[in-house]
From TrEMBL, chain A:
Record's protein name: tRNA modification GTPase
Residue ranges constituting the GTP-binding protein TrmE N-terminal domain according to the UniProt record: 30-156
Gene Ontology terms: biological process: tRNA methylation; tRNA wobble uridine modification
Keywords: GTP-binding, Hydrolase, Magnesium, Metal-binding, Nucleotide-binding, Potassium, tRNA processing
Organism superkingdom: Eukaryota
């Protein structure tokens, strides 16, 4: 029997709407992941890999080559298999890390798609930040072993490896089942936590969809929709997602720590300050969350300090960094008066007096830093969950949908358009992308409303 | 397609032609005929083209009609009963049957419509209405493909309303109240006068199946056999139908019409799975006994919308009014007191009814806190006093029905013309069909309408036109046509039917379509009419109308892009309506994109285009106003489609695939999806299963590739040997 699938959406009025079904392309999304091992002691180099049709454009967004730094607005187009040196920027334009980029364009790559590898500093902090930047720029976090699966599907691996890939997928689905079970148990015991919040948000989306879609099909049988109520609920959901994302941000800081650069002239007590703080410093100055400039109280503000401050500022402007600068006046025990500090208040967000040797003022410094990176907004004990990168990505997707939804409401775009973004948000929150929510909405409609003739 | 299948199709295809020629010599399927058939095959193989050339009927339907008609008449003179042989047989004359028979006959296939009662062709046994949310999209789509339903509804309406007007262009829906008798009469006239189409009253009891599991025709209760290589079954509620009023039941397809018996058992013998569904219809009351003074009247729209894209059918007529009343405390009490008398709560009917069409007792039991339910009174025609009591279907015994009706305000003194009843019938879960609506088991056998588990005239018509097209194409040896899910509501409907395990009557709903913004009423023609033209259902006149319309829309969109205004009344009003500032030298396009600005405003200020019809202006407005959203959905669709539409081989053994979950193996074996996208929509199949499936397919593909490479190498080697031996032979001869 022969069948001709003649029509896809070919709408003459839309012009070029035809989609060719000639070559089955197994994937159209671009994925990213850290491909070097994490968890152990940091290696010298770690790799973030991008693969997919938009790998080059995503890399182009996060990567700024050193050689062509000043040619702004020119689209980055790499030569395959030619290494380039440059910086990775986050979505705000802050420099995160300096990297080597290894472009391997299709089909000469592991997955036979465009692959870009970003070789970063080996610390987990750097790697996670670079990955986050890639996700923000439109990549999707790779599923476990997705690179290998793609490599196989695109004809890269040989047949003998196929079986292993198959096993890999099975074990993955088993792991997923385990995880689902764990999650189920978790949610029934602790009625709180991240997954509960996401589930409740998703339920709210579906309830709103139900309200709206029931009225599309059964308009004359239902009371009119209270638009204000719907609008309020959408605003509330957006706030909740924002709250969760803030938590996610806090979580990220917890997982990767806060990067602090301690700068100062020789002998002002940087190393003793570090010791007193007794925290491991990654000390990548240009990507720091907070810059701590240390001066000696005994010597007061010197002209050398002036030059240093100037350099910090010019550096910040060059990298368009917004990291706050804190002044630490160390060796406070040796000084009688520090009135000169007041004259510098414009240059620093905060100042703290410490004596690194005795540990005096260290807790003040800590709370100053905590306040500056925004951690104080989350009440202690109010946070009962941890958010991983994958969940965070879903939240970002849901948030974007809510933001578009709000725009639609503001512009008074008809009700049906709201469902597009609500559906998107619900799907993002469903965590398993592509989960069919239409049946759920339908059952809800029939369960909740008395409709039908 | 493998070779034997190819052979089989071309054999089936050659059948009718040679039958006409040899009819007087050989009765069908006699040994002589088989001889003849195999002879023909050896001559005409291997291509379908041979057949297409030898059959002028298909190349040029109108002209060749005379040829084939005269030919069959000639054979009629020689021997009666040769008209038992057709190219397509449609069983059932409801909304699916009519569209199927018309589509098939219009494609030039000699078609026979078998129905239990010719006077009931295109009958509307339930509500006197066509269209509504999602359903109206179906009607527009059927019309865009060259179907009939929209035209007849446009001709026979009693009232028309556009629903969801302010809720967005994708959900705008046209609903017509129709004159039931007039509708059936008009459709019957069209069916009766269609060339190539014969009608016969008959009860089909069996499907005749030949070798290789392909259909050969049908057998009727009175022992007649009708032959055709394609058969479409549209049995509606008639297959082993049984109607219920209270506890009393009788075999019937509808009140007063006998059911059809025997077909279910014979289909089961062929290996089909059957199941039972239930639906119901409310009572009809005499409008002369109803007091409308206290009811809320529901008038039709002043500006009438149309289902058909053919302006020749846009003829306005006087509209009638519908009325709204409500259930009262007494209604609810009466039902609560007598629940044990209803089939569902009394527990003597098990078949599942539709959730979206609940009986009044269901509504009252499930929504205890709702004090009152809306009841609509709809006229069934201009010349009859019957009123359809919408929202009031019930399984209560007849003696309680009139007292129940009389609890409704305005109906205190009403008289009941027909009691409400429920009907149970057999259906065949549609996972047994391909998306072409041909069954997977029997080649050439198609199912459409309620037999596939749907409800609704529109759903039936939508399936009917597809199966009619494909039945004719199958008889002609052409490839079958499938509408992708993303192309239309018809495609969505069929995809749902064949992939989801549905156990209640299926009704199309707007929320079933993921990409409904692209599947609107206004663009049904630009989506589907080119296809209708390719298939052969859109004639030159209609095609010209279509092309002119598209050209006007395109031209107008270009005009709006280029015409700029600076200040003036229009700018002032646009600023006022949209609460947004209007820049100097704005294009009309940019104005139209602003909130609340409609094309009407251009007309008002003299910037409109008088050459465009109201519908065309609406098209322009939608294209421009919602461009951003439409493009976004279009992009999403394109990304998804590449993977979704890649096809699955037909011979996959899912039970063998140990990397799939057990549930996925079972469900996929049952549904046997045709594409990856379909597979992913089968219930119980997870994304991980789909990945595993992709991997298996890729492995298989490579294994097959290796094999062919191997074969090529061996055959090349063998060829070289042969060549060598031939050379040596030649040499021998020469020497």
């Amino acid at each position: 029997m022969k069948e001709n699938t003649l029509v896809l959406n070919k709408d003459e009025r839309l012009g070029d709407g035809e989609v060719s079904c000639a070559e089955p392309v197994p994937s159209s999304s671009t994925i990213a992941a850290i491909v070097t091992s994490l968890g152990g002691p940091p290696g010298a180099v770690g790799i973030v890999r991008l693969s997919g049709p938009s790998a080059v454009s995503i890399a182009g967004e996060v990567f700024r080559p050193m050689s062509r730094k000043r040619r702004k607005g020119v689209r980055w187009w790499p030569n395959s298999h030619v290494v380039e040196y440059g910086e990775v920027l986050d979505s705000h334009g802050n420099v995160i890390d300096e990297v080597l980029v290894v472009p391997m364009l299709a089909p000469k790559s592991y997955t036979r798609e465009d692959v870009i590898e970003l070789q970063c500093h080996g610390s987990e902090v750097c790697l996670r930040r670079v990955l986050r930047a890639c996700l923000d720029a439109g990549a999707r976090l790779a599923e476990p072993d997705e690179f290998t699966i793609r490599a196989f599907l695109n004809g890269r691996l040989d047949l003998s490896q196929a079986e292993n890939v198959g096993k890999l997928v099975t074990s993955k689905s088993m792991a997923a089942a385990d995880a689902a079970l764990a999650d189920y148990r978790g949610s029934s015991i602790v009625m709180g936590g991240f997954s509960f919040m996401v589930k409740s948000l998703r339920a709210q989306c579906i309830e709103l969809l139900t309200e709206i879609e029931a009225r599309l099909d059964f308009d004359d049988e239902m009371p009119p929709l209270d638009i204000n109520l719907v609008t309020d609920r959408i605003h509330k959901m957006l706030q909740e997602v924002d709250g969760a994302l803030e938590t996610a941000n806090y979580d990220k800081l917890l997982q990767s720590g806060v990067q602090i650069a301690i700068v100062g002239r020789p002998n002002v007590g940087k190393s003793s300050l570090l010791n007193a703080w007794s925290k491991r410093s990654e000390a990548v100055a240009m990507g720091a969350d907070v810059i701590v400039m240390t001066v000696s109280a005994a010597e007061g503000w010197t002209s050398e300090d002036d030059r240093l401050l100037e350099r910090i500022h010019s550096n910040k402007i060059a990298t368009s960094s917004t990291s706050p600068v804190v002044l630490v006046v160390n060796k406070i025990d040796f000084a009688s008066s520090c009135a000169w500090v007041d004259t510098l208040s414009r240059s620093f967000r905060k100042y703290v007096f410490t004596c690194a040797v005795t540990g005096k003022g260290i807790s003040n410094l800590e709370s100053a830093v905590v306040e500056l990176v925004g951690l104080n907004k989350i009440p202690a004990g109010g946070r009962k969950w941890t958010v991983n990168q994958r969940q965070c990505e879903q939240l970002v997707r849901a948030r974007e949908a809510f933001v578009r939804l709000q725009a639609s409401i503001e512009e008074e775009i008809p009700l049906d358009f709201w469902t597009i973004d609500l559906r998107e948000a619900a799907m993002a929150l469903a965590q398993i992308s592509g989960e069919d929510i239409s049946e759920e909405v339908l059952s809800n409609i029939f369960g909740k409303f008395c409709i039908g003739k | 397609m493998n070779f034997s299948k190819l052979l089989q199709i071309s054999m089936a295809a050659t059948l009718s032609l040679h039958l006409n020629r040899f009819a007087s010599l050989c009765p069908p399927y006699s040994p002589l005929f088989f001889l003849n058939r195999s002879l023909t095959c050896s001559i005409s193989l291997p291509s379908h083209n041979t057949r297409a050339i030898s059959s002028p009927t298909r190349r040029n339907p109108p002209r060749s009609f005379c040829v084939s008609a005269s030919a069959s008449q000639e054979s009629n003179n020689h021997r009666g009963g040769s008209d038992e042989i057709y190219e397509v047989i449609v069983v059932g004359g409801g909304h699916a049957g009519c569209e199927a028979a018309l589509a098939s006959a219009r494609l030039g296939a000699k078609t026979l419509l078998l129905t239990l009662n010719i006077d009931r062709i295109a009958w509307q046994p339930c509500n006197p209405a066509v269209g509504g949310p999602a359903k109206s999209q179906l009607v527009h789509e059927v019309d865009a493909l060259g179907g009939e339903m929209g035209k007849v509804a446009d001709r026979c309406y009693l009232q028309k309303r556009i629903l969801n007007l302010s809720k967005g262009p994708a959900v705008r829906a046209l609903r017509a109240q129709t004159d039931k008798r007039e509708y059936a009469f008009e459709m019957k006239k069209i069916v009766e006068s269609a060339p190539h189409l014969s009608i016969r009253e008959a009860m089909v009891t069996d499907v005749l199946v030949g070798k290789n599991d392909s259909v050969e025709g049908v057998q009727t209760f009175f022992g007649m056999k009708f032959y055709a290589p394609s058969v479409v079954l549209t049995t509606g509620t008639f297959m082993s139908g049984k109607i219920w009023v209270g506890r009393t039941s009788m075999p019937a397809g509808r009140a007063g019409e006998s059911a059809s018996h025997g077909l279910t058992e014979n289909l089961q013998k062929l290996g089909f799975e059957t199941d039972r569904l239930k639906t119901g219809t409310p009572a009809r009351v005499d409008s002369r006994t109803v007091d409308f003074s206290g009811m809320e009247p529901q008038h039709g729209d002043e500006e009438v919308g149309w289902f058909s894209f053919d302006p020749d059918y846009h003829i306005e007529r006087e509209q009638m009014c519908c009325y709204l009343t409500r259930t009262t405390k007494e209604t609810h009490q009466l039902i609560k007191d007598n629940l044990h008398e209803t089939p569902t709560y009394g527990g003597w009917v098990e078949a599942k009814g539709p959730r979206y069409c609940p009986s009044i007792e269901d509504k009252i039991v499930r929504f205890q806190d709702k004090e009152s339910h809306q009841i609509f009174l709809e006229p069934e025609g201009r010349t009859v006093p019957e009123l359809y009591v919408q929202g009031f279907s019930t399984g209560l015994p007849e003696r309680l029905q009139l007292p129940l009706l009389r609890t409704l305000p305005g109906l205190e003194n009403c008289s009941m013309l027909r009691p409400a009843y429920a009907v149970e019938y057999d259906y065949l879960p549609a996972h047994q069909c391909f998306r072409s609506l041909m069954t997977k088991k029997i080649e050439g056998l198609f199912f459409s309408g309620q037999i596939n588990g749907t409800t609704g005239y529109e759903e039936a018509a939508a399936q009917g036109i597809i199966s009619g097209i494909n039945a004719a194409r199958h008889s002609d040896g052409k490839s079958l046509i499938v509408l992708e899910r993303e192309s239309s509501y018809i495609g969505t409907l069929i995809d749902d039917l064949v992939t989801k395990d549905l156990r209640e009557p299926y009704r199309v709903l707007t929320s079933r379509s993921e990409h409904r913004l692209l599947l609107r009423s206004d663009n049904a023609d630009s989506r589907l009419t080119p296809l209708g033209r390719d298939i052969g259902l859109i004639d030159d006149v209609r095609w010209k109308i279509y092309q002119d319309k598209q050209a006007r829309i395109l031209e107008e969109k270009n005009r709006l892009k280029t015409v700029r205004i600076s200040g003036g009344d229009l700018a002032v009003e646009v600023a006022e309506v949209s609460s947004q500032p209007v820049k100097e030298s704005s294009t009309l396009e940019s104005l139209l994109k602003k909130p609340h600005v409609q094309y009407k405003l251009f007309d008002k200020h003299g910037y409109g285009n008088a050459l465009l019809s109201r519908m065309e202006k609406e098209c322009v407005e939608i294209d421009i106003k919602y461009e951003g959203f439409i493009i976004r959905q279009q992009t999403q669709l394109r990304q998804m489609a590449q993977q979704q539409h890649s096809r699955l081989p037909e011979d996959l053994d899912y039970f063998d695939m140990t990397t799939l979950s057990h549930e996925a193996r079972e469900k996929l074996s049952k549904v046997r999806p045709q594409t990856i996208g379909q597979a992913s929509r089968v219930g119980g199949v997870s994304p991980a299963d789909i990945t595993a499936l992709l991997i298996i397919l890729e492995s298989n593909r490579r294994k097959a590739k290796e094999r062919t490479q191997h074969q090529i190498i061996t055959s090349t080697l063998a060829g070289e040997n042969q060549e060598m031996s031939e050379t040596s032979r030649n040499q021998t001869i020469r020497s």
